[in-house]
Specification:
Shape: globular
Bound molecules: guanosine-5'-triphosphate
Number of helices: 9
Order of helices and strands: EHEEHEHEHEHEHEEHHEH
Number of strands: 10
Number of domains: 2
Strand content: 15-25%
Radius of gyration: 20 Å
Length: 319
Amino acid sequence: MYSSPIPVAPDGFRSGFVAIIGRPNVGKSTLMNALVGQKVAITSPVAQTTRNRLRGILTTDAAQFIFVDTPGIHKPHHELGKVLVSNARGAVQSVDVVLLVVDGSVPLGRGDQFIADFVADLLRSPQKDQTPRSVILGLNKLDQQPSDPQEQGAIAASYQALAQEQGWGLVSFSALTGAGTEELLTQLTQRLETGPYYYPPDLVTDQPERFIMGELIREQILLLTRQEVPHSVAVVMDRVEESPQRTYVLATVYVERDSQKGIVIGKRGQMLKQIGSAARLQMQKLIDGKVHLELFVKVQPKWRQSRHSLEDLGYRLEK
Ligand SMILES: Nc1nc2c(ncn2[C@@H]2O[C@H](COP(=O)(O)OP(=O)(O)OP(=O)(O)O)[C@@H](O)[C@H]2O)c(=O)[nH]1
């Protein structure tokens, strides 16, 4: 994937790492894709689509941003929640700027406040080398603002108060339409220090294509089966073989129960066919070539599957 060498950065060039954090479903992955100009993270209306840290890279004439997309954080009521929080902490500690994304079409809620407190806490850490320098509060879904100006004003005021109290930047945008994202990049550039190119300027992600292909299959399962198949569904890429004519992909979808296997396969295999052809089209866009995709579905008992798949995905499971 490293298609070109890393050049020497011009004078005054800025670079750095930006963690995109926030509640599930606020639009973090949509934003990262919009910023880097390519689909590097999958998105869906179902919360907790993103399961591990992904890096999206954007290089402009003035700066290189390495965006770290994190799984949505919510209050840890259960073990997975604790894992998500500890992952987010790891992702946030080593970056230059934190972009805390909220759904700006609704007022600041308890979930956002929990994350805001978590970020404010991190910034108070005595280990300055492991602490982000600044925070931007990003109000997403600008296109979904309520039409009532009073309601709009109340929403804006709730976020302004938080930004003011903490001394954080504040930007409104729509990851879906792209409105406001230029201003966001301007503000982010100002918060980076001068630095080198960390990656070749034409690279948009540090993830291998094989991983993104698996994610594209998972995305279609989440989109097409809706709530019927849980998030524990895992996709394992068994084989990816490239040839001049087409790329041959063999993958297995792991579910927890026979009933879920039935849903993913569908009546006379219709659902699996639909998942496969939609994922194949996305893969073809990704690699800019023809793809032949074969999908299998297997049932794996819950305890084995969840431990195996989460660890595979890079989560540190607490014993
Ligand atoms: N109207 C509107 N919808 C948006 C916008 N940004 C994202 N969405 C939608 O919000 C839903 C969630 O988006 P994601 O990008 O998957 O959200 P996320 O924060 O990465 O979610 P997790 O992976 O659960 O943490 C999708 O249906 C998006 O299309 C926006 O600017 N406007």
